[in-house]
Each structure stands twice: as C-alpha cells, then as structure tokens.
Amino acid sequence: MQVNTLILGAGAAGLMCAAHSGPGTMVIDHAKAPGEKIRISGGGRCNFTNLHTDPSAFLGRNPHFHKSALARYTQWDFIALVERHGIAWHEKTLGQLFCDDSAKQIIRMLLDEAAGADLWLQSSLVALTHDGTRFTATIDRQGQRHDVTARNLVVATGGKSIPKMGATGLAHDIARQFGHKVTETRPALVPFTFSDGPFRPLSGTACPVRATANGISFEEAALFTHRGLSGPAILQISSYWREGDEIALNLDPDGTMLDSLRTGRARHGRRNMTTALAQHLPARLVDHLAPVLGVSGNLADQSDARLAQIVGTLSDWRLKPTATEGYRTAEVTLGGVETDGLSSKTMISHTVPGLYFIGEAVDVTGWLGGYNFQWAWSSGWAAGTAI
Ligand code: FDA
After folding, report:
1. Which of 291, 336, 341, 356 could lock 154 by a disulfide, CB 3.0 to 4.6 Å apart?
2. What's the 245 CA to ligand 1 centre distance in angstroms?
3. At 196, is the pLDDT very low, low, confident or very high (cuts 50, 70, 90)?
4. What average pLDDT does this structure show over 309-324?
5. pTM of the entire structure?
6. How far is the CA of 159 from the centre of ligand 1 (A)?
7. pLDDT at 197
C-alpha cells in the first residue's frame, strides 16, 4: 500500500497535521480511540489553548525554536477554528480556555477537519526503514500485517507521560534510529512526593501560594496530598525542579498578612494567634505549622518583631521533595527530540528527507494552562501545511 504521508499517532498534534497534510494521508494509532488525552484533559472540558500564549511559557534547550510555529499558527487561529465548529468556550482563569460542554467536541472537530485521512486504530508499528526517498512501515492492524510506503513520515506519538493511557517512547526511538539526538527526558507538570508523608493529615487542603523552584515562581493554588504536594502552582514549578533541590512556598503571596495581623491586634487583641492565622490560611494548615512557628498566646501578646518573624517564616517555607510522582501522573514529558536537528518552520528533519516530528515528542514543553495543546496545534499545522 502506498500513501503520500504516514502520521504515527492520532493525538492532538497528529490529527491537526492530518487536517492539513492533503490527499494520501494515513494516520495510525495503537489506541482504540483517537485523541484520548484530549478526552480526559481539563477535567473532561479540555483546556485547549491559552489567551496569553507566548514563547516565554515554553521550556526547551533552544528557547527560540518554538517561536516560528507559535507565531504562524496562533491561539487566535485555533479559537477561530473552534468557533467555526460552533463549540462554545469560556475563559476559566489566567487566559485558560475550556469547552463549555465537553472535550469530545474538540476530538470531533479534529476528526471532521481530518476527514480526508485514512485512520487506522489499534495499529502498531512493527518495523520502519527508509531508502533515501521513501519510508516503508510494517504495521500490525488488529493482528494483520501491512507494508505501507510513504514519502513523508510524521512522528506524533507524544511523550512518555501516563503509560497506562498508551504513552510510549516510540518517537524518541525513531529519532535515534534516524540519527537524531534526544535530550534528557523527565516527567513534568507532576506532583511532588515526600518519603515521610508529612502532609498526610492535611490531605485535601488547598491554599494560594507563590511557589518557587530554581528561581522560577508561580502564583496559584497548592494542594496538600497524601503523598506530598500538588495543585497548579506545584505542577508548574515541577518543570523547573531537579532531584535534591529545595522549593519555597510563600503562604502570603499578596503580602497582606502582616498588616492584617497588626490591625487585628489593635481591634481584637484577645484573639488567639492560631485563630488569627486561620483567617489567612486553612485551619488545618495552621494547626500543622503552629509547632514549627512556635506560636502561642493572643494577638496582643505578639510584638511587631514577633509578628514579622511569623509572617517571614510563612512567606519562605522551605521544603525538600523526595521525588515526583513520575510518568504515572505527569501531564507532560519535559525534553524530547532535539530541536537542533529540525526546521523550526516545518518540523522536518535537517538530515532525513520527509521525516517530521511534532507535538510533545519534541523538546518543547509548555506551562500548565493550555500551552501544551497550543504547541500540538501549532507544530501539527506547521508540518501539515509544509507537506
Ligand atoms: P498525544 O499524547 O496527544 O498523542 C499521541 C498519540 O500517539 C496517542 O493517541 C497515542 O495512543 C499514540 N501512540 C503513542 N505511542 C504509540 C505507539 N507506540 N504506536 C502507536 N501509537 C502510539 N495540555 C493542555 O494544553 N491542556 C490541558 O487541559 C491538558 N490536560 C492534560 C491532562 C492530562 C491528564 C494529561 C496526561 C495531559 C494533559 N495535557 C494538557 C497535555 C496534553 O495532553 C499533551 O501535551 C498533548 O496531548 C500532546 O499532544 P501529542 O499529539 O504530541 O501527543
């Protein structure tokens, strides 16, 4: 069987590419259904892009690589597509756009856009060769072997996050097979674990924080879990954290706690210190921190210096995570196919004619908040329109 373009992976990037790669496109995926990560994303409503998409919201060895594709197919282009398909959406917070109804609408939209492509599900790549002009892929489709030759091969099989959902390192293996380098990969947008389970009694407690790792800070919620720490602020800094690093939590992110405690002391001096702190922080967290802070007595018992010391400690709570929850729960994979070997305009290999890498497989990783899907759309579009 001969096709013009064979796309490996019917996820976000692969389907977007198939929508633009023209006649003679075949897409294969080993899953039973296309776009499974889209389906479960954003709590079933898919945070499909971010209004504030900007190159600074992406990590990768080359901080410039992703600029071209993101500038040529922008968040506004994707919003226009969503609107053309009559999908209602809303901004939740921080520019994050979600479907009003269901993530399945995004999958339906992509399948409609890619209707011209032949989609083979429950199909795996068994072998892959290239003769200088054409790729030959041996594909196992539900137990039957097929040899498919293609002028273009687009690798869109994503990263290693959530193997239970079918994530594999296939893209990285194919990159290495064809002489491309793969940067160090690690789980990102992932909760932290602490070996001694210090936050078990706080499990389920959330509060706004400014979380910092390696000089990078995010101001959002943190969530204490049975195993450690999660929540958007924590997931964001996990992309910047390395084993052995400390993180810092500022529990007074808007910096109003000291003034408020001073005012409280003037008005309600007999208020217990833990009660006063519980007006700013969840009561369970105050109970947990009280012995560390050594708080006792009433507000009236505290000097200005003592209040400042307490707030100072709460503003710079140092913690040393043991590890992360790993690929089991990581939203994305940091690192991937090294971008030096790819064209930033089209995603094509500099060395192998007709070979493209797109989406999460590539060493471009976005922040939490719709940025990773935007990269999938932009890179998929860049490759698809270049074919
Ligand atoms: P994607 O993973 O989407 O697709 C890869 C496809 O390749 C899959 O269909 C897979 O089955 C297939 N495949 C893999 N290995 C294969 C093999 N060996 N043979 C055949 N097929 C193979 N991002 C965001 O911007 N907003 C959000 O709301 C969320 N939410 C979210 C929630 C959860 C729980 C996760 C795990 C992730 C997110 N993300 C997200 C991240 C987002 O899902 C991710 O960045 C994109 O799906 C990446 O798109 P790709 O097409 O590159 O890979």
Report:
1. 356
2. 28
3. confident
4. 98
5. 0.97
6. 7
7. 87
- 209 in contact with ligand 1, CB cutoff 6 A: no
User: 164 alpha carbon to ligand 1 midpoint, in Å?
Assistant: 12
Q: ∠ CA(5), CA(7), CA(12), 5° rounding?
A: 135
Q: Give me the percent of the chain exceeding a pLDDT of 70.
A: 100
Q: Confirm whether the ipTM is greater than 0.85.
A: yes
Nearest ligand 1 atom, CA 170: 18
Structure tokens at 104: 């399945």
Contact 169 CB / ligand 1 (< 6 Å): no
State the Cα–Cα distance between residues 40 and 36, nearest whole angstrom: 7
Q: Give the DSSP per-residue string, 204-229.
A: T-EEEEEEEETTEEEEEEEEE-SSEE
- 136 contacts: CB under 8 Å, gap ≥ 6: 127, 128, 129, 130, 147, 148, 149
Q: What share of the chain is helix, strand, coil (3-state, %, to 5)?
A: 35, 25, 40
Q: Which of 257, 215, 240 is CA-nearest to residue 324?
A: 240
Nearest C-alpha neighbor of 28 from the set 161, 148, 132, 110: 148
